[in-house]
Automatic annotation (TrEMBL):
<keyword id="KW-0963">Cytoplasm</keyword>
<dbReference type="InterPro" id="IPR050687">
    <property type="entry name" value="Dynein_IC"/>
</dbReference>
<keyword id="KW-0853">WD repeat</keyword>
<feature type="region of interest" description="Disordered">
    <location>
        <begin position="306"/>
        <end position="328"/>
    </location>
</feature>
<feature type="compositionally biased region" description="Low complexity">
    <location>
        <begin position="224"/>
        <end position="233"/>
    </location>
</feature>
<keyword id="KW-0282">Flagellum</keyword>
<dbReference type="GO" id="GO:0045503">
    <property type="term" value="F:dynein light chain binding"/>
</dbReference>
<dbReference type="InterPro" id="IPR036322">
    <property type="entry name" value="WD40_repeat_dom_sf"/>
</dbReference>
<feature type="region of interest" description="Disordered">
    <location>
        <begin position="196"/>
        <end position="233"/>
    </location>
</feature>
<dbReference type="GO" id="GO:0045504">
    <property type="term" value="F:dynein heavy chain binding"/>
</dbReference>
<dbReference type="InterPro" id="IPR001680">
    <property type="entry name" value="WD40_rpt"/>
</dbReference>
<keyword id="KW-0966">Cell projection</keyword>
<dbReference type="GO" id="GO:0120293">
    <property type="term" value="C:dynein axonemal particle"/>
</dbReference>
<dbReference type="GO" id="GO:0003341">
    <property type="term" value="P:cilium movement"/>
</dbReference>
<protein>
    <recommendedName>
        <fullName>Dynein axonemal intermediate chain 4</fullName>
    </recommendedName>
</protein>
<feature type="repeat" description="WD">
    <location>
        <begin position="623"/>
        <end position="657"/>
    </location>
</feature>
<keyword id="KW-0969">Cilium</keyword>
Length: 712
């Protein structure tokens, strides 16, 4: 019996109760003893003679240690014997022997383990579980309306493993060895630091055991050089070679320090400016309308060839008479062609003379999407590079070019997506706003040498979901000066929104207008039944371009992808003031006339340019000279009659005071290139044209008589 500290009987009861009446055949002593131990263990534990029981158990344990260690590997049903038979085999000594019993806990066997989904607050993993639950709640909260989550089922298929075997020729290994001495190693190490002697002298470095051919141990810093003819050897001090090598290294370090110094970089900058001025001086003078300086030496050399030049001009003039028909096909208006019967030099037709091009290896192959002049520095030009087609998208560039260096941009801003629009700020001229194809808007600081983004719209919740086709900085109150002069950034996107961006610690926007689709006004024929209205997939129309009124910035025009032009007001964002229908394709550009502020131009993918009056919904004039998309138009800043247009095949200059049927000047694009944008220079008679190959060409407008700008 087993008692606890309080005296209670806690003796364990046996799981098996043997039947004393059952008689089993006699078995071996091992089975009998082990069976008796298993079958009668509970019997002698419950008797009053505790000492006798302990002695009996000790005897059984000793017998089992000698024969077998497996005391519990037998079934209880096979070892049922009579207690009297077992008692006959025990002696008094066996009963008096001391027996030690040790009770140990058996190993726990888990049949079913189900981990709990509940964690105690006091456990070690409580903090980690709470953090994971918080992250999951945030994800579920931000999931509605987020374009990053897509409801879709997915099953991952693990492909079958494949064994690949490669056959090759057996790799043959060879062992090679050679004998070297300590002086061979020493001489070979030193010869690598000293310049090898000239082969013309026929000298060679030799090592050997003779006193004339190898270096002695006493003179370990010298080296023997013997000629092929067996002439006397001359010693070269290794210390001199080491000194020369050290001097050479110091010179290299000194020259590298000079090249990386700020003063040297600034000197190189000035030298580059001087070289560019010398190379492009005649063209820059023509651009700024200054007289071109001619070197006196060149002038004296060419003075003797004046007669030859005159003869060449006369021959050229005779050839022009014969090719009168070809000149009419040169896309120059016939009304302004010179009279060929007159002497040459009296009337010269207007033309475009190319001065230079802004292009480098970095921009080559990137399509020019937009151009903008700096509001303060008229020599600084910003050019955006990005494709208009979805299939041709790649990383974009925004470069700032200067007239002082047409061969490499002053600033280079690399963008992850194609640049579609850009513009300089008026209140802060160092800020450059850039619109991209993915709908994001970024602002860069051109004064900083760091090309990182100053502000971007990636964190804005109202950012555009379509390409930003045009953006522009506009003043809120043009009459205000100083601190009261504020500025806003206006963008139009393919998602059908015209937005106003507020520049604070981060970019955020509000909608000025959501462009809605309008039904086409088709006249009903007599006797025709009413047509069913077509169901619209989307109520919003993609915006393509806009332009604010030059005098009243509260009104603006917006061109759409469906070919309509809407007149809108900043005070009313629910409906349009007017809608102008005339184009059959997307409207790529609208532009108010800076002098006649009631007129505006529009160009479209339907190959046409239309002149409008804001009080009339019918087009006044339609210009169409080529079967190609018209990507860009711009009014001349010096005349109310002149505007430039860029279609895919050529760039055109129209003068409405001369002709309304044909352009006065046309220039074809280079092979495999398409013109994409045009921009007039501010203070000179020059035109900038961008193409699909990344080249911005600067042309001078020659012999184009601009009428008085006050005349309308």
């Amino acid at each position: 019996q087993v008692f606890d500290d309080e005296g209670k009987d806690v003796t364990p009861h046996p799981l098996f109760h043997s039947d004393p009446n059952t008689v089993v055949a006699r078995q071996g002593k091992l089975l009998a003893s082990s069976a008796y131990f298993g079958a009668t263990g509970s019997v002698f534990l419950s008797t009053s003679a505790v000492n006798a029981s302990l002695k009996l158990m000790c005897l059984l344990l000793n017998l089992e240690q000698k024969r077998s260690r497996l005391l519990t590997s037998y079934n209880f049903s096979d070892v049922q014997v009579r207690q009297e038979e077992i008692k006959e085999q025990l002696t008094k000594e066996d009963l008096d022997r001391r027996v030690d019993i040790y009770l140990t806990e058996t190993e726990t066997v888990w049949i079913l383990d189900m981990p709990s989904v509940v964690v105690s607050v006091e456990s070690e993993d409580a903090g980690r579980v709470l953090e994971r639950n918080k992250i999951y709640v945030d994800i579920c909260k931000n999931r509605p309306g987020n374009d990053r989550f897509v409801e879709k089922m997915m099953q991952t298929i693990n492909g079958a493993a494949k064994n690949k075997e490669v056959q090759c020729d057996k790799i043959i290994m060879e062992d090679k060895g050679m004998m070297v001495t300590s002086w061979d190693l020493y001489d070979s190490f030193n010869t690598s630091e000293i310049e090898p002697t000239s082969k013309a002298e026929g000298s060679r470095v030799t090592t050997g055991k003779s006193s004339k051919s190898h270096t002695s141990k006493e003179h370990d810093q010298t080296m023997s050089v013997s000629s092929d003819r067996g002439s006397t050897t001359s010693s070269i001090m290794i210390t001199e070679g080491a000194v020369l090598a050290r001097i050479h290294e110091e010179e290299e370090c000194h020259s590298e320090a000079i090249l990386t110094s700020e003063n040297f970089q600034q000197d190189l900058f000035f030298m580059e400016r001087i070289l560019m001025e010398n190379i492009f001086q005649p063209k820059l003078a023509a651009y700024r309308q200054f007289p071109v300086l001619i070197d006196p030496d060149v002038r004296s050399d060419t003075s003797g060839n004046v007669a030859a030049v005159k003869e060449t001009k006369q021959e050229k003039h005779d050839k022009e008479k014969k090719d009168k028909k070809e000149q009419k096909e040169a896309f120059i208006d016939p009304s302004i062609l010179p009279d060929l019967n007159k002497t040459p030099g009296e009337i010269v037709p207007p033309r475009l003379e190319q001065l230079w091009s802004y292009i480098c290896d970095l921009t080559n192959g990137h399509s020019v999407s937009s151009m903008a002049w700096s509001k303060v520095n008229p020599d600084l030009l910003a050019v955006g590079y990005g494709a208009f087609d979805f299939k041709e998208q790649k990383k974009g560039l925004a470069c700032c070019w200067s007239l002082k260096n047409p061969m490499w941009p002053e600033r280079i801003f690399r963008c992850e997506h194609g640049v579609t629009a850009l513009d300089f700020s008026m209140a802060s001229p160092n800020l450059l706003a850039v619109g991209m194809y993915n709908g994001s808007v970024a602002i860069y600081n051109v004064r900083s040498c760091n090309n990182a983004v100053l502000l971007d719209s990636s964190e804005s919740s109202n950012k555009h979901t379509g390409p930003v086709w045009q953006l522009r900085w506009m003043e809120k109150d043009r009459n205000a000066t100083g601190d009261g002069k504020k500025e806003r950034l206006i963008c139009i996107s393919a998602d059908g929104r015209i937005t106003e961006w507020l520049i604070q610690k981060r970019l955020d926007c509000t909608d000025l207008m959501k462009i809605k689709r309008t039904e086409s006004e088709k006249k009903k024929l007599p006797g025709e039944k009413e047509r069913k209205r077509e169901a619209l997939i989307s109520r919003q129309a993609a915006g393509m371009c806009f332009d604010f009124h030059p005098k009243d910035t509260n009104f603006y025009l917006a061109g759409t992808e469906e070919g309509h032009i809407h007149k809108c007001s900043c005070s009313c964002n629910e409906q349009f003031l007017e809608t102008y229908r005339g184009h059959k394709g997307p409207v790529y550009k609208v532009a108010w006339n800076p002098f006649s502020t009631d007129m505006f131009l529009s160009c479209s993918a339907d190959w046409s340019i239309i002149l409008w009056h804001q009080d009339s919904q019918m087009p006044i004039l339609t210009f169409s000279s080529a079967t190609a998309f018209v990507h860009d138009i711009m009014w001349s800043p010096k005349s109310a009659f002149i505007f430039a247009a860029a279609n895919e095949s050529r760039v055109e200059i129209w003068d409405l005071s001369v002709s309304i049927f044909n352009p006065v000047i046309s220039r074809f694009a280079s092979p495999r290139a398409k013109f994409t944008s045009v921009l007039f220079a501010k203070n000179t008679d020059c035109l900038l044209v961008g193409d699909s190959k990344g080249e911005v060409s600067v042309f001078e407008l020659q012999n184009l008589g601009a009428p008085n700008s006050d005349k309308v």
